[in-house]
Structure to design on (483 residues):
């Protein structure tokens, strides 16, 4: 009985297949013909060619070796920009200015599809991108592995900490666009092991520089050295950042592993260190003009009277020329006198107007006198309070909480209603309080992608707080239509 119950439905099922010609709703497997297979192969080939094609009038091939374990430090790739300048019909200086001012537009081509990345810079503007291991542009922390950034006069490359390993290779495609012409740099990034330095010091020079405690920015100060003597000692006609070396430890071991842009962060004890509280100075070459090396104090990690002795050198083959630099931290002589009276709350109404631009260009208002008179402090004292984090700026409403800055601190990206937001989240404009030893300005600019190029107005309120005093700035951001 069980066998009969089993065979009957099976027979019915078989009959259903044999009767398919009478049932229009029954589908069947189609066997592709040779012609159809050939057409599919042709379409796949076309798609593959399109994916491998780079949309550019000029492609320059470069390689950049980054040392295993390096983090964030940008290395100058050493690109010859003359061919790009020739393509764009300008000089190299005009090209540099065009990049810095936004007239020459940045671009990035995705590694997997070779399509243009359409969401703007993801690293420092005006020309900077993070990319993942596939060479596709991405935001920091979203699979980011390497970055390329323009520092004003060179394209640099660096890596994300704890992401890449020895032997890894990534190809990225940053580029520039001017009019209808496009130039792309096909950059192969390799992670390599630092070379062991086997060379002797054939030349030494002792140099001294005095830097004031107000050196809170990362701008290097030039220190002149005998360029010709160094070149002669190691047998070269000119020096480059690829030759840089320093002491790896107290034993005198030499390293060429750069951990900063065009140079080294040095430890307070003398040899190479790292960015942070134990850092003394950043020594560089190529960041300052003329026959100089750059010296920059680590912000917030020094005091008047500190003395640091560090070294930076140049190697060619088995010869090294070493510059031993003594950095003395001296007190700042404030040229201003604080306004008289007691600190008091203040209010100011400011309107800043600019045309919409497709970059992060800003306009500024001088707020030095407003803040000086309210806080009864000098420009330098206010600047120092900003660096130390004592002076705080809030958006719309002050509070006892630490401000959550979303632009360069102290600063915010803001929405059309004037409330704070993050970059890329309905962000139409930014507001930043810029400062220095002699200036205090409020800077504003529009988002190049999310802001309306036909123009708009944003009412914003910034509250600057310090020493129990509030300065309320009622700010009107007036973005005019694109010119």
């Amino acid at each position: 009985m069980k066998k009969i119950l089993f065979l009957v439905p099976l027979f019915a099922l078989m009959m259903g297949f044999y009767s398919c010609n009478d049932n229009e709703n029954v589908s069947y497997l189609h066997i592709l013909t040779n012609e159809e297979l050939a057409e599919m192969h042709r379409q796949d080939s076309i798609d593959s060619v399109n994916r491998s094609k780079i949309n550019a009038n000029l492609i320059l091939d470069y390689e950049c070796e980054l040392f295993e374990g390096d983090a964030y430090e940008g290395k100058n790739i050493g690109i010859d920009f003359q061919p790009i300048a020739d393509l764009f019909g300008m000089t190299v200086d005009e090209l540099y200015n065009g990049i810095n001012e936004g007239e020459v537009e940045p671009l990035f081509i995705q590694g997997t599809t070779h399509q243009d990345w359409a969401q703007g810079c993801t690293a420092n503007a005006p020309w900077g991108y993070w990319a993942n291991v596939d060479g596709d542009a991405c935001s920091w922390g979203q699979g980011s592995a390497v970055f390329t950034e323009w520092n004003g006069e060179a394209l640099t490359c660096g890596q994300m900490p704890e992401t890449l390993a020895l032997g890894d290779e990534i190809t990225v495609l940053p580029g520039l666009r001017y009019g209808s012409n496009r130039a792309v740099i096909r950059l192969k990034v390799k992670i390599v092991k630092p070379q062991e330095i086997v060379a002797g010091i054939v030349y030494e020079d002792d140099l001294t520089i005095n830097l004031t405690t107000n050196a809170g920015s990362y701008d290097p100060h030039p220190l002149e050295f005998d360029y010709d003597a160094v070149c002669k000692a190691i047998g070269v006609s000119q020096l480059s950042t690829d030759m840089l070396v320093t002491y790896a430890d107290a034993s005198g071991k030499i390293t060429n592993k750069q951990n900063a842009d065009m140079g080294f962060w040095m430890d307070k004890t003398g040899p190479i260190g790292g960015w942070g509280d134990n850092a003394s100075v950043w020594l560089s070459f190529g960041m300052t003009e003329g026959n100089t090396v750059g010296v920059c104090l680590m912000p917030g990690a020094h005091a008047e009277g500190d003395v640091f002795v560090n070294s930076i050198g140049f190697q060619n083959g088995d010869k090294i020329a070493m510059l031993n630099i003594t950095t003395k931290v001296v007190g700042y002589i404030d040229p201003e006198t604080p306004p008289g009276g007691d600190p008091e709350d203040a209010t100011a109404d400011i309107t800043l107007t600019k045309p919409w631009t497709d970059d992060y260009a800003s306009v500024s208002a001088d707020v030095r006198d407003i803040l000086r008179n309210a806080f009864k402090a000098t420009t330098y004292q206010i600047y120092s309070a900003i660096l130390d984090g004592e002076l705080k700026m809030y958006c719309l409403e002050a509070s006892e909480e630490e401000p959550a800055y979303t632009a360069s601190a102290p600063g915010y990206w803001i929405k059309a209603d004037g409330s704070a937001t993050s970059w890329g989240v309905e962000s139409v404009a930014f507001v930043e309080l810029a400062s220095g030893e002699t200036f205090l300005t409020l800077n504003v600019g529009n988002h190049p992608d999310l802001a309306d190029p036909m123009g708009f107005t944003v009412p914003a309120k910034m509250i600057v707080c310090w020493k129990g005093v509030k300065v309320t700035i009622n700010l009107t951001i007036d973005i005019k239509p694109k010119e």
